[in-house]
Design brief:
One of its GO terms (biological process) is carbohydrate metabolic process. This is Glycoside hydrolase family 88 protein. InterPro entries: 6-hairpin_glycosidase_sf, 6hp_glycosidase-like_sf, Glyco_hydro_88, PolySaccharide_Degr_Enz, Sialidase_sf. The chain is an alpha+beta fold and 788 residues long. It folds into two domains: 430 residues, 7 Propeller (Methylamine Dehydrogenase, Chain H); 341 residues, Glycosyltransferase, CATH 1.50.10. Helix content is 27%, strand content 26%. The N terminus is likely disordered.
């Protein structure tokens, strides 16, 4: 059984992970990349330095290069998901070719090897203690004397126990695969150039090599003529080191121990026959120590990559097609038609499971995102069974790698997760493992609440930066709800940096509301503006909003409030009770001018009289739903619509003075009445379904309504309006549900998209308003914790 958990096991783990979290029951069969755990959130690697990671005991040890060019060691426990990392070299080279390799020494200590991209020297560090990355001896260095104008690159260490020798393979200054050897990591042998080109046959060619070892007496070597970009035909070759000599796969000895010509070895794939160049990706061996190779081919005609599997049967080499693989994975500015991609041969990646080389992992584009797939050779060895590892991911997943010495049943598949990768010297990547992330904690502590709220806010603020040029989107109600949550959160935790970011963002909007004069959706952003005015006292933040609301009051909308009877400029839909009334209440609080509260109260009562069902104590979304019934024959009350109302009531009550006796009692009474009803409709898993009276019609979780309810009730508890004993269990259960819907990237999933009624929801769905509701809820919970 291979060391990487099978996909059936992955699905079982999904279910185990979902104990108390039934969201998976409504999800897709396979996770997206964002459901998997991070090994590091800032790291990358090339595929020509291996092993990139190893198991020792029940933990994974490895290394990576970060986006500052620093070299790091990491330690990861898959069972607990505890992870640690230690910088071993500062700012070596911002280049993914600089990633380190790692090996376990006979005494249990760890050694890591690395160099800059074609730089000198080769560095290495040795851990002070076995299976412990916290302290290292070194860095030490070695500079083998090899003629050439290039530096060193790539590192591949192996220990052969029967020789008592460590071999370190690398690319030398001569651009050729070379090695040095040692018995004590202090004194190194003279360098040996392993391969070279025949005179007159591209002597400047640079063969790319991959290595594997049985750890006893053999080293398996697969290599190319050179770089596929530079070679007219780039073939794949193989040879075996055994007992100081080199052999072909059939046992034929290759003369010499250095300066071996490719045509003296096995030609596994002959590019001159197909005119499709190739590049090596991995080599391993089966239980009989027959070599297995995976590589990529490139069609010059269509510039399409494909993955291939080659194996020695004992008598001959077989090349088996795996799959088409799209094109290169870098993402540059392809609008520049003068730009020519310099690394057209950077495939997503193909890699062998070294414990069972019948299993291959690939990265290829699915719906324009590179996804990881598992391919298992079946039947007579000519057919493949494909299983998705990632599906529907947000970002590209590339360069899969299987951790060496992986215990049976443990996760061992790792890959790069690309936020941005235009070049090997300009990347922003993470590294993930095929272990479902344990998720954020729903614990009621400031630390736990901050972790999830910060991740959600970071994601949304990054999105704001990327889309700031779209002014209509920036001022729409969907974004406005997010701003309310962001401001609540950053003010609660005192994050001046983020508050300034929001201020600068609003400066670009000139503090303007939307274009429609009466429409509540276009007014909603004014809530955030007025909150910022409360912080800064800058009249620029107040004047545009005040001018618009003054105009509306001076030019009141027509009398019709029933949308079924024709056009209406009033608050004819219940969502509007969140979008607009709190603006007028804030203006009343700021200016003391009662015209604002009078107007808002008059309009609120009109909507209340039109849409509120006193029997069910909830609001119909609009006049279209008053007489409608769902398939169960029940009235239709939409979760998010009533969430808008309840959260809107919280905003109104925040703005109205505590001593107010004319308006506040109505809103407080309605708030309590609705909270009592809504609390009774919460699902056992903490979510409210989109159809509040008929949860079985759309049984999947939904976060936008849930988040608004949690926020409103938590506000009510903090304000002393709701009883702790009655409502705190409801809020806690709802908060845990919201947290479970947040993935590792801070995406709040299970969000019903823009709608006006109950409907189906997908786990992948997110919108700004769910993030905003979570942040508003987080703010109230954080405040509550601070008082206890």
């Amino acid at each position: 059984m291979n060391c990487v958990r099978s996909m059936m096991a992955a699905v079982l783990i999904c279910l185990v992970h979902a104990v108390g979290n039934m969201t998976w029951a409504y999800g897709k069969e396979f996770p997206c990349a964002e459901d998997y755990a991070f090994v590091t959130e800032d790291g990358a690697w090339c595929w020509f330095s291996d092993p990139r990671a190893i198991y020792s005991g029940d933990e994974i040890f490895g290394g990576f290069v970060d986006k500052e060019g620093s070299i790091w060691a990491f330690q990861y426990n898959p069972a607990t998901q505890d992870r640690a990392q230690t910088k071993v070299f500062d700012r070596l080279d911002y280049d993914d070719h600089a990633n380190p390799s790692i090996i376990k020494l006979p005494d249990g200590r760890l050694a890591m090897f690395f160099s800059g991209h074609s730089d000198a020297p080769i560095y290495y560090v040795i851990s002070k203690r076995p299976e412990d990355i916290s302290e290292w001896d070194g860095p030490y260095s070695v500079s083998p004397e090899i003629d050439g104008k290039c530096g060193f690159c790539y590192s591949n260490p192996f220990i052969l126990s029967e020789e008592g020798m460590m071999y370190l393979f690398f690319r030398g200054p001569n651009y050729k695969p070379c090695y040095i050897a040692t018995t004590d990591l202090k004194t190194w042998s003279a360098p040996v150039t392993l391969l070279k080109s025949r005179p007159g046959r591209d002597e400047n060619g640079r063969p790319y090599a991959k290595y594997a070892s049985n750890g006893k007496d053999k080293i398996f070597i697969a290599f190319t003529d050179g770089h596929p970009r530079n070679q007219p035909a780039n073939s794949i070759y193989f040879m075996l080191y055994d007992g100081g000599k080199y052999y072909k796969a059939d046992g034929t000895e290759i003369p010499g121990v250095s300066d071996i010509y490719p045509d003296m070895t096995d030609k596994v794939y002959d590019a001159t026959e197909t005119y499709d160049k190739a590049w090596i990706w991995d080599v391993a061996f089966d239980k009989d120590e027959n070599p297995v190779i995976v590589y990529a081919r490139f069609s010059d005609t269509y510039n399409v990559h494909s993955y291939w599997y080659a194996r020695w049967t004992g008598e001959k080499w077989e090349n088996i097609f795996i799959t088409e693989a799209g094109q290169w994975f870098m993402r540059n500015d392809y609008n520049d038609k003068n730009y020519i991609e310099t690394e057209m041969n950077y495939s997503g990646g193909v890699y062998l499971d070294h414990s069972n080389p019948d299993i291959v992992y690939t990265s290829r584009p699915i719906n324009n995102v590179f996804e990881i797939e598992k391919w298992t050779l079946t039947g007579d060895g000519s057919r493949w069974k494909k299983t998705a590892v990632t599906c529907g991911s947000e970002h590209d997943n590339v360069r899969p790698f299987v951790v060496r010495d992986c215990p049976e049943g443990m996760p061992g598949l790792m890959w790069m997760y690309n936020y941005r990768y235009p070049s090997y010297t300009a990347f922003d990547c993470a590294i993930r493992l095929n272990r479902l992330d344990k998720g954020f904690s729903g614990e009621w502590s400031k630390k736990a609440v901050s972790e999830v709220a910060d991740r959600v806010s970071d994601r949304q603020m990054k999105h704001m930066q990327e889309t700031s040029s779209d002014l209509s989107e920036a001022k729409c109600w969907r974004s406005a709800v997010l701003y309310n949550g962001l401001i609540d959160w950053v003010c609660t935790v005192g994050d001046g940096g983020r508050l300034k970011f929001i201020k600068d963002y609003f400066d670009r909007l000139d503090w303007q509301v939307g274009d429609r004069m009466y429409h509540a959706d276009d007014h909603c952003i004014a809530q955030a503006y007025l909150d910022m005015y409360g912080k800064y006292g800058d009249s620029r933040m107040l004047v545009p909003t005040k001018a618009r609301m003054d105009w509306v009051i001076a030019n009141p909308p027509g009398e019709n409030i029933d949308i079924t009877e024709g056009h209406s400029d009033r608050w004819w839909w219940c969502d509007a009770l969140y979008m607009a009334p709190a603006i007028y209440m804030r203006l009343y609080s700021i200016t003391g001018d009662k015209k604002y509260v009078k107007f808002a109260h008059k309009e609120y009562l009109a909507t209340y009289g039109h849409l509120y069902d006193t029997e069910e104590r909830m609001f119909f979304r609009d006049g279209n739903f008053i007489d409608k019934r769902n398939e169960e024959g029940k009235k239709i009350f939409w979760s998010r619509g009533n969430g808008w109302v309840l959260a809107g009531l919280a905003e109104i009550l925040k703005a109205l003075p505590q001593e107010d006796r004319k308006y506040r009692p109505f809103y407080e009474s309605l708030f309590v009445e609705m909270c009592e009803k809504i609390a009774s409709l919460q699902g056992a898993d903490g979510y409210w379904r989109t159809d509040l009276l008929s949860p079985d019609i759309y049984p999947m979780p939904e976060t936008s309504g849930t988040g608004l309810f949690v926020y409103a009730m938590m506000y009510g508890i903090n304000a002393g309006i709701l009883d702790d004993d009655a409502y705190l269990p409801v809020v806690k259960k709802g908060w845990e549900a919201m947290v479970e819907a947040v993935n590792t990237e801070g995406r709040v999933g299970w969000t019903q998209m823009v709608a006006d009624r109950p409907g189906a929801v997908e786990r992948k769905n997110e919108r700004e308003y769910s993030a905003g509701s979570l942040l508003m809820a987080a703010s109230e919970i954080y405040r509550y914790i601070g008082t206890k």
